Amino acid sequence: MEFQNLLIANKGRVQQITINRESKLNALNKDTLAELHSAFTEAFQNPEVGGIIITGAGPKAFVAGADISEFAALNIEGGAQLSRTGHSAVFDLIANGSKPVIAAVNGFALGGGLELAMACHIRIASDNAKMGLPEVTLGLIPGYGGTQRLTQLVGKGKAMEMILTADMITAGDALQYGLVTHVVNPEELLTKAEEILNKILSRAPLALAAAIRSINAAYTDGINGYETEITEFGKCFGTKDFKEGVAAFMEKRKAEFKGE
Ligand code: COA
């Protein structure tokens, strides 16, 4: 598939998606969001892709937010529609994806950019990264899941302070808050993301998907996460990968998982 605003590169079972609007600090306009929907849908369906790394083009930004120039014409209904479509087409699509997605945050991750990183399953950052949800400076609030996912990741007090002050935090702060799990030099960022993802991809694929569903259930209204875990745990026993994993352990060899 050809994209105007994304670069796609495959290395083994790792697919790297790079948001490529460097002159606008990779801001998410409608076209880029539509392309992200297509790219992630395709990556989740493609059996040759095991997991995805998402990053931003250039040395300065992961994503500096939703494209503010597209906001001016919106009214109440248009704003709500933009938010609702974004949630389902991109942010929830990634969060509920059956394959692991790592955000490699290589600079500014602001507004919709931080929301995109937070929709991913794991976030790592370069030491020059800056993160924040500055929407209240525009008379808005985060609209792509930020009020919910930031609260889940860092707790209510820190989320309140970050969203109400609109302040950016450093990569070091983000590490301390648990918003990212590793901070490295910019040159090492993608290598580190690949290292983590390749380790994950050596594990049983159906178990990874079951783990993502079960962890997400902890934060899904109306669902008992413990019940989800019980069901998903049970289903794992019906997979060939489970039989292979146990056999490999008993035979003291490396498991060869097929995702079946
Ligand atoms: N939407 C649209 N365009 C954006 C953008 C966004 N969220 N963020 C940056 N850009 C554009 C700028 O308008 C500028 O375009 P131009 O060269 O055509 O004028 C270009 O990207 C470079 O940005 P600039 O502001 O010149 O870079 P900077 O280094 O001075 O500042 C930031 C960097 C990130 C602090 C600043 O761009 C900024 O505050 N961006 C908006 C962040 C934001 O509020 N995001 C939340 C949106 S809901």
UniProtKB/TrEMBL annotation:
The keyword Cell membrane does not apply. GO terms for biological process: fatty acid beta-oxidation. The keyword Magnesium does not apply. One of its GO terms (molecular function) is hydro-lyase activity. It comes from the Bacteria. It holds the Pfam family ECH_1. Gene3D superfamilies: 2-enoyl-CoA Hydratase, Chain A, domain 1, Lyase 2-enoyl-coa Hydratase, Chain A, domain 2. Keywords: Lyase. Belongs to the enoyl-CoA hydratase/isomerase family. PANTHER family: ENOYL-COA HYDRATASE, MITOCHONDRIAL, ENOYL-COA HYDRATASE-RELATED. This is Enoyl-CoA hydratase. It comes from Mucilaginibacter gossypii.
